[in-house]
Design goal:
The protein is 64% helix and 7% strand. With 150 residues, the protein is mainly α. The relative contact order is 0.11. The longest helix has 26 residues, at 15-40. It has a single domain, classed as Winged helix-like DNA-binding domain superfamily/Winged helix DNA-binding domain (Arc Repressor Mutant, subunit A), CATH 1.10.10. Helix 2 (15-40) packs across helix 6 (109-129). The chain is built from seven helices and two strands. The chain has a two-stranded antiparallel ribbon with strand order 1-2. It is elongated and about 60 Å long.
Length: 150
């Protein structure tokens, strides 16, 4: 459906305004669809992002700064997210004895299992979201968005 129909407007002030609103609207649409997947597992998109980052560490611990830098939603409170994941048994958080300000965070086997179970379902949702586009078109969108961010 066209953005004008979705937002019930006839025209935008500029093509740049339309593009910006289209990106925001589409981002929200994708987030709504993928959140259904996360809800099934009792985690948020931001918590999933933390688990994905920790899995990418390949067993090496990460600190809160590393997690925050790699987050998709950079304004997320990494400390709070890690604490929630710790309470669910998905991550370990160890305070360094030599430097109490240093915290090392790792993903647990339970966290890895969660990702293992969630990944195929999330991949299916993401694939379905883009099924109206060819692989070339999907790749082109990624290239254009990279270019936009400079």
């Amino acid at each position: 459906m066209k953005l004008e129909e979705e937002l019930r407007t006839e025209k935008f002030k500029t093509v740049q305004q339309r593009a910006a609103l289209s990106i925001l609207f589409t981002s929200n649409w994708i987030e709504e669809k993928t959140n259904e997947c996360f809800k099934e597992y009792g985690i948020s998109q931001e918590q999933y992002n933390v688990l994905r980052i920790l899995k990418g560490q390949k067993g090496k611990p990460a600190n809160l700064s590393t997690i925050q830098e790699r987050m998709i939603h950079r304004m997320s409170n990494a400390t709070r997210l890690v604490e929630k994941l710790k309470l669910k048994g998905y991550v370990n958080r160890v305070i360094c004895e030599d430097n109490r300000r240093k915290v090392e965070i790792t993903i647990t086997p339970k966290g890895l299992d969660l990702l293992e179970n969630l990944y195929p379902k999330l991949t299916h949702v993401e694939t379905k979201l883009f099924d109206t586009l060819s692989e070339k078109e999907a790749k082109e969108i990624g290239i254009l968005l990279d270019k936009l961010r400079g």
